[in-house]
Design brief:
This protein has one domain (11-245): Alpha-Beta Barrel (TIM Barrel). The protein has ten helices and nine strands. The chain has helices spanning 11-14, 39-48, 73-76, 87-90, 105-112, 128-140, 153-162, 182-191, 197-200, 214-221, and strands at 20-24, 51-58, 64-66, 118-122, 146-150, 168-172, 204-208, 225-231, 242-245. It has an eight-stranded parallel beta barrel, surrounded by four helices. Strand 5 (146-150), helix 7 and strand 6 (168-172) form a beta-alpha-beta unit. Helix 2 (39-48) packs parallel to helix 5 (105-112). The longest helix has 13 residues, at 128-140. The model has no long low-confidence stretch (mean pLDDT 97).
């Protein structure tokens, strides 16, 4: 219980997200003509009333950019890591051949302008403290509703220590989905059961849709808010307080 116990959040933190469907990486199209994590996808989500989940990481020159993958291969057709290029280089790249570019986090916040709640995922990286600090500095100037989450318990733990008022969550997935190497199996056994919650004391658990391990169920019983990802139909709404979805159009609120 010590390892998995969460921090039970105040109702005021939960309320903006409770019973909402959140567009995964914005309301992007399955064929990526409206690319994921693009300004167009975020604008489309706002226009439809959906909350937004997005990903942030650092460029080589320390800019906070909105992009999911570690590398640029899938989305931009460039064989490079995101953190190996400066932002002026990243900003020239097309997302899936569209007219959309990799946006700065600050640009996305300006476009959303508090219209819908945001779930901000911080990607794990070598410069955890820098990413956390810079992301939080940007968010402190933002007037809209937001929370943060990460697969990295040390990132969530940074917010526990330095930004206690921010609604924070731990992202996790089924233990078998971390990989097949010996290291991945150990990682999956620990992170897939949220056994580093003692570092982060998250207030919500965003868990991959599927059968939840006993430790995750215990964490939820102890007060963590259940969040599901990534839904492709409304079936998981009944068992979760927040749903992160893609490629269909659910109700804006279901509770």
């Amino acid at each position: 219980m010590f390892l998995v116990s969460p921090h039970k959040p105040e109702k005021t933190k939960v309320l903006p997200f409770y019973g909402r469907n959140i567009a995964h990486r914005g309301l992007f199209s399955k064929d990526q003509t409206i690319p994921e994590n693009s300004t167009a996808a975020f604008t489309r989500a706002c226009e439809n009333g959906y909350g937004i989940e997005l990903d942030v990481q650092l460029s080589a020159d320390g800019q906070v950019v909105v992009f999911h993958d570690d590398t640029l291969n899938r989305m931009c057709g460039v064989d490079s890591r995101v953190d190996a290029l400066k932002y002026d280089e990243l900003s020239c790249l097309s997302l899936k051949g569209s007219d959309q570019r990799i946006p700065l986090f600050s640009e996305v916040l300006k476009a959303v302008d508090g219209r819908v709640p945001l779930i901000v995922e911080l990607k794990t990286c070598a410069k955890r403290a820098e990413l956390c600090s810079k992301t939080y500095d940007i968010l402190k100037e933002y007037k809209g509703e937001y929370c943060i989450e990460s697969f990295d318990p040390f990132i969530v733990g940074w917010f526990k220590k330095h930004a206690k008022t921010v609604f924070r969550g731990f992202l996790s997935q089924l233990p078998g989905h971390y990989g097949n190497s010996a290291k991945d199996v150990i990682t999956g056994a620990l992170l897939g059961r949220a056994l580093f919650n003692f570092i982060a004391r998250p207030e919500f658990i965003a868990y991959q849709i599927g059968k939840r391990p006993l430790a995750i169920r215990l964490c939820l019983k102890l007060g963590a808010i259940p969040v599901a990802w990534t839904a492709h139909d409304p079936a998981c709404e009944k068992d979760n307080d927040v749903v992160i979805f893609e490629h269909y159009k659910p109700e804006i609120k279901y509770k």
